């Protein structure tokens, strides 16, 4: 995995912080990230004000890329806000995977019921069916 940091200048402390946080967070993903791009920019030039922009883009194989973009007064604050948004996206993705794994699929359950030592208790593990019966008229 490559971490590319653009537009930051010579701030080594912030570069080290960014690389450490991103590496630690992406270690929690089931699929390893291909690349990470962190871009900093100055929106207003020398005018001052809220003008430090931070964009974080994470490329994950077989999934849409994770992206967050924030603006703040300083580059570190902008990074912290963008990083928090990316962490929420990662956590949401992990939660979605957990929910899918908890509920057995119908083909898995059918295979378990066809086994010779199958018991009726297996059907209680699955979620209730949402399918309605047709009325015969």
List the helices and strands and how they pair.
Elements: E1 2-6, H1 12-26, E2 35-42, E3 52-59, E4 66-72, H2 75-102, H3 106-114, H4 121-125
Parallel strand pairs: 1-2
Antiparallel strand pairs: 2-3, 3-4
Explain this structure:
With 137 residues, this protein is of the alpha+beta class. It has a single domain (2-102), classed as Ribosome hibernation promotion factor-like (Double Stranded RNA Binding Domain), CATH 3.30.160.100. It is 42% helix and 20% strand. The chain has four helices and four strands. Strands 1-2-3-4 form a four-stranded mixed β-sheet, covered by helices on one side. Strand 1, helix 1 (12-26) and strand 2 form a beta-alpha-beta unit. Helix 1 packs parallel to helix 2. It is elongated and about 75 Å long. The chain starts with a strand and ends in a 12-residue tail after the last helix. Mean pLDDT is 81; it is low at 122-126.
- As for the number of domains, it is 1
Quick one: how many beta strands? 4
* Residue share in β-strands: 15-25%
Mean pLDDT: 81
Widest sheet, order of strands: 1-2-3-4
- Radius of gyration, whole Å: 23 Å
- Look at the helices and sheets and give the structural class: alpha+beta
Largest sheet: 4 strands, mixed
Feature tags:
single chain; 137 residues; alpha+beta; Double Stranded RNA Binding Domain; four-stranded mixed β-sheet; 4 helices; elongated
Short description:
The chain has 137 residues and is of the alpha+beta class. Helices cover 42% and strands 20% of the residues.
């Amino acid at each position: 995995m490559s971490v590319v940091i653009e537009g930051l200048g010579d701030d080594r402390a912030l570069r080290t912080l960014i690389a450490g946080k991103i590496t630690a967070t992406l270690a929690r993903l089931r699929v390893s990230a291909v690349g990470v791009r962190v871009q900093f920019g100055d929106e207003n030039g020398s005018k001052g004000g809220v003008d430090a922009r931070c964009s974080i883009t994470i490329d994950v194989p077989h999934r849409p890329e994770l992206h967050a973009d924030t603006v703040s007064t300083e580059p570190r604050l902008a990074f912290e806000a963008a990083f928090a948004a990316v962490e929420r996206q990662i956590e949401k993705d992990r939660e979605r995977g957990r929910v899918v794994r908890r509920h057995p699929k119908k083909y898995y359950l059918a295979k378990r019921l066809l086994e010779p030592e199958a018991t009726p208790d297996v059907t209680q593990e699955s979620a209730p069916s949402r399918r309605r019966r047709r009325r015969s008229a």
